[in-house]
Amino acid sequence: MPYASSELDEYLQERGVHHQIIVALDNKQVCLTVEGKRTSKIIEPIIQESSRGQSEALKRIAGQLRQKHSQRVYFEKSLFFYERGHILFLKPRRRIEWNVRQAVLDADDLIAKLLSDDD
User: Which of 41, 51, 61, 90 is 20 to 30 A from 25 (CA-CA)?
Assistant: First the structure.
């Protein structure tokens, strides 16, 4: 069975880059970081519970991302940052946010954002 970042690593195989994936979980949010590192070794993903400080920060950020649409309907937005080979995703911890289709949509959004920022 291939490891989680094998598809990412294939794109930069000639450069000797492997991706480190770290997932920090709390009750309602997931913080996913992906970072390219120059190494010949495969880097296994790390999944961990958020520390108390991380969890509090995730709650504050999630509160800022939550948008009221109507009287009783709220949307929970996702957030991502990209800086020099380091990507951070913050998303609600709901099954609908973490499936193959959503991953493709997220990748499309990220690529479009990166390409538009190059202008």
Answer: 41
Percent of the chain beyond pLDDT 90? 1
Q: How confident is the model at residue 1 (pLDDT cuts 50, 70, 90)?
A: very low
Could you tell me which residues are beta bridge partners of residue 74? Answer: 68
> What is the helix (H) or strand (E) element at residue 37, kind and residue range?
strand 29-38
* Structure tokens, 98: 């973490």
Q: What is the dihedral of CA 22, 66, 62, 34, to 10 degrees?
A: 20
Query: Rounded to whole angstroms, how far apart are CA atoms 20 and 44?
Result: 7
Distance CA 38, CA 71 (A): 50
